[in-house]
Design brief:
The complex is a heterodimer of chains A (about 525) and B (about 170). With about 525 residues, chain A is an all-alpha fold. In chain A, about 75% of the residues lie in helices and about 0% in strands. In chain A, a hairpin with a 4-residue loop joins strand 1 (about 90-95) and strand 2. The model of chain A is unreliable at about 35-60 (pLDDT under 50). The chains are: A mainly alpha (about 525), B mainly alpha (about 170). The interface of A and B includes residues 136, 212, 214 and 239 of A.
């Protein structure tokens, strides 16, 4: 018995995204030949006239606008596939190599949603810079496919391979706009440090395999139980502790937790803004999903003797450090992208609080729901925020002058809607009541208190108060500081970006005002780690 | 007999691996790496993973090393570009960390860690390590990672093209 149609149906979102990416790559082949043939009869005079009217468009550049819409359509199809399976019972796929349960489906839906909105953000940005290529959307689709597989994987080998699919595509996307120096630098840093993190993860996986004789998380859980009762092979408790510590370190890098956060500001700053938004939302969702799966399904036995308090203690310290340093380092940043990068570190800390709360079995369903709610709300918010940044940035992307706060001054007079959207996203990131960010923080901290981690929850609330300062500073610049530079007007082609920003804002408000309806949607996921 | 061979291979791997890091001239480092791979292949044979041993020699010591040597040739570093040997505090800390780690592992190794699977038993029962056994694992229980790996290779190719082609 190898596999059947049910197995393939279980990983449907990833399959749809991969096929979409292949279609995009294939379409590129036909595109070039047909355009070349069509242009051959054009007389030299016409060509001069063409270049005179549109000096920036090189005449051999084919029209690639369909690609964004195709990618968005594929993402929507993936979203539909993930959502349509939401209520189905959980099934194990490929002899336990993967799992199709509520948790994985919600994360896959979050990833596909993030991809869908990112396509709209990227469309205007790339067209403005005349940088649309089939590879861009193909790589984002591949990366999203890797994320969906990560969310469903229950085998350390599958986790590693999907992690690399996701990461490799993102390394290339960071370096996509190579006109400046910074994208290359960002991609190189990300690649070197990311490979290092993958190696650490592999080391942990190898130790886990050595201790339990299997890479399946279910078998590892059995090995952990055996070691807890002292019945396992000699020395396996120590091996398992080393294994879980190394696996956690590998994923702490991916989710940008302190002290594995050094790459984040440079990479978020150097990558094109639409990519950064997708990276922040998608990688966080996928990496947290798989971290939770490894820790809870693999090492989550309450009676486990791994360390004094199991893996929970590691996560609690990581969370505290991440929340503290993330918020602290964000304060002096003047570049909005760098500020958002540090804010992404801080948010990783809040998400780690939810992971820590999942260590206790009674609070696990609530913590699961809190984590998923947080991932979805953070995704919508951060893509929206980077969407606005993309509009501001694309004017300066070529000059490489970046997005200093001064270029945001007086935005409310020129573009009141844009200013309002940015303020909404900032408030949501800060966790101010009518927005999704508030509800997300509330559910996460509540589950932490349920799990008996009240000090951590209080620390989290305090750090998020400190976070208000740097989020509101952007709002102050947008609304209250008079315009300094007259040239910082976002240009044309804003329709698709408007669609993206409007949908992000709607999601943020919807999740903030009616959190119950979203919670009801992800109800099936909360029992995924019930036991 | 097996223990003697293991120690020969193990010392070879460690010495060659250290040479890769310590040599100033990259081409010496690359050659040391080839030696390291060969010794590692010997250890694989001792673990009765014959297919992996062959693949190690063919893929790593063969194909990958040729690539490395080509890159070194293309970079064509001059003697002065390699720079002098510097002793810095960071290197000292790194060396101390390595020694502590090695000492810790050696200390742990004195109390033998028993792994969950006994390789000799596996070999007798399942024909472990042969082409047939690896193929069975690859196309049956590990079919999902196998398929996703093909996706990974495609992504790697597309990524390389995106990075290598003209500036966008």
């Amino acid at each position: 018995m190898t596999f059947n149609a049910n197995d393939l149906l279980g990983v449907l979102p990833a399959i749809i995204l991969s096929i979409g990416a292949l279609l995009l790559l294939m379409s590129e082949v036909f595109l070039s030949t047909t355009r070349a043939a069509a242009q051959a009869p054009a007389s030299p005079g016409e060509r001069v006239a063409q270049t005179a009217t549109a000096p920036e468009i090189s005449s051999t550049q084919p029209d690639r606008r369909y690609q964004a819409w195709l990618a968005a359509g594929v993402a929507a199809l993936g979203l539909w596939a993930a959502l349509s399976q939401l209520g189905d019972p959980a099934i194990s796929l490929f002899n336990g190599a993967a799992m199709s349960d509520g948790f994985g489906r919600v994360v896959a839906a979050t990833v596909c949603g993030a991809l869908l909105i990112s396509c709209f953000v990227a469309f205007g940005y790339l067209e403005w810079l005349r940088a649309t290529r089939g590879e861009f959307y193909a790589l984002t689709l591949f990366s999203a496919a890797g994320m969906c597989l990560l969310a469903q994987a229950t085998d350390l080998i599958v986790i590693f391979v999907s992690l690399e699919v996701m990461s490799l595509a993102l390394y290339a996307l960071c370096a996509y706009l190579r006109r400046g120096k910074r994208p290359a630098e960002a991609a190189f840093k990300y690649f070197i440090l990311g490979s290092f993190a993958s190696a650490i993860f592999l080391y942990g996986a190898a130790l886990g395999f050595g201790a339990t004789g299997s890479t399946r998380l279910a078998d590892i859980a059995a090995g952990v139980r055996l070691a807890a009762t002292g019945g396992g092979p000699g020395g396996s408790a120590g091996l398992l502790f080393a294994s879980v510590a190394l696996l956690t370190a590998g994923f702490a890098f991916k989710v940008a937790a302190v002290p594995f956060h050094m790459w984040v500001p440079d990479v978020y700053d150097g990558a094109p803004a639409p990519v950064t938004g997708f990276m922040a939302a998608g990688v966080k969702a996928a990496a947290f999903a798989v971290l939770v799966r490894i820790l809870v399904s693999g090492f989550g036995d309450p009676s486990s003797s791994i360390g004094p308090h199991g893996w929970q203690q590691i996560i609690v310290w990581l969370a505290a450090l991440t929340m503290f340093f993330g918020n602290l380092l964000a304060v002096p940043q003047r570049s909005v992208k760098r500020m958002l990068a540090y804010s992404s570190i801080a948010h990783a800390g809040y998400l780690l609080v939810a992971v820590a709360a999942m260590g206790n079995a009674p609070s696990r369903p609530d913590a699961t729901q809190g984590l998923l709610f947080y991932l979805a709300s953070y995704g919508a918010t951060v893509i929206g925020a980077f969407g606005v940044v993309a509009l501001i940035e694309r004017k300066f992307a070529l000059a490489g002058t970046g997005d200093d706060l001064s270029s945001w001054a007086g935005l409310s007079e020129r573009h009141p809607a844009l200013a309002a959207a940015m303020s909404l996203f900032m408030l949501s990131l800060a966790g101010v009541p009518p927005t999704a960010g508030f509800m997300a923080k509330l559910t996460v901290f509540r589950s932490a208190i349920e799990a008996g981690l009240a000090p951590l929850a209080i620390f989290g609330v305090l750090t998020s108060v400190a976070g208000l300062y740097y989020y509101l500073r952007v709002v102050v610049y947008v609304y209250m500081v008079p315009e300094g530079r007259a040239d910082s007007v976002p240009g044309g082609r804003v329709l698709s970006a408007s669609i993206a920003l409007a949908s992000c804002a709607l999601i943020v408000l919807w999740m903030g005002i009616m959190p119950g309806s979203f919670s009801a949607m992800i109800q099936s996921a909360s029992g995924s780690f019930g036991r | 007999m097996e223990a003697v061979l293991f120690y020969i291979f193990a010392i070879g791997v460690v010495v060659a691996g250290a040479q890769v890091v310590l040599r100033r001239n990259p081409i010496y480092g690359a050659v040391s790496l080839v030696a390291c791979f060969f010794f590692l292949a010997g250890i694989y044979v001792l673990l009765s993973a014959h297919l992996i041993a062959i693949l190690q020699v063919m893929v790593y010591a063969g194909a990958v090393m040729v690539l490395f040597v080509f890159v070194i040739m293309l970079l064509n570093l001059k003697e002065e570009e390699l720079g002098e040997m510097h002793v810095t505090t960071m290197k000292g800390i790194g060396l101390a960390a390595v020694l502590v780690l090695v000492g810790f592992i050696a200390w742990k190794a004195l109390t033998p860690v028993q792994f969950a699977r006994d390789m000799a038993v596996n070999e007798q029962i399942h024909g472990f390590g042969g082409v047939k056994a690896v193929g069975n694992v690859l196309y049956r229980s590990s079919v999902l990672p196998f398929e996703v790996t093909s996706l990974l290779l495609l992504v790697a190719v597309v990524s390389a093209v995106v990075i290598a082609k003209g500036k966008i």
